[in-house]
Amino acid sequence: MRKSFYEIFEEVEKAKSREDKKNVLRKYSGPALKTILGYTFNPNVKWLLPEGTPPYTPVKEGTDMEGRLVNELRRLYLFVEGPSDTQKNLKQVRREQLFIDLLESIDPGDAKVLIGMKEGKLPFKGITRKLVAETFPKLASDW
Asked: For 4-27, what is each residue's pLDDT tens digit?
């Protein structure tokens, strides 16, 4: 069974040293993890959603949501500033509802990760922009 992003970041948080934290991130390195870290820490990413936690109903524990956030990462462009006509033509109320729908369709832990991404800070101690930049220099090269 694949770990959720929430579980991966919990493992990073529990790592004792900075080097251990980097090693855990490298262990789970892949396009999806780097997408999450990029959307979270890249200062050039501007989220088009209000600050704070939106009103949503988390999925019940035990529901099989494995890998669901991975499948939804391709839709994140709807929630950030960019050149897409789709995103420019999307009304703000609809954008916010799509975000809530997304939160309500993924693992509750990963929903917390997604909210943290939007806020620019993951809800785990020790996972910082500096740590990510040191671990994945290519990812952070244009920050």
From this structure: 999 999 999 999 999 999 999 999
The sign one gets for the Cα dihedral 76, 80, 10, 51 is: negative
Q: Read off the amino acid at residue 2.
A: R
Structure tokens belonging to residue 143: 């920050």
Q: Angle at CA 94, nearest 5°, toward 91 and 100?
A: 145
**CA dihedral over 135, 5, 82, 53, signed as positive or negative:** negative
Alpha helices, DSSP H, located in 2-72: 5-14, 18-27, 31-41, 68-72
Tokens of 47: 């989220």
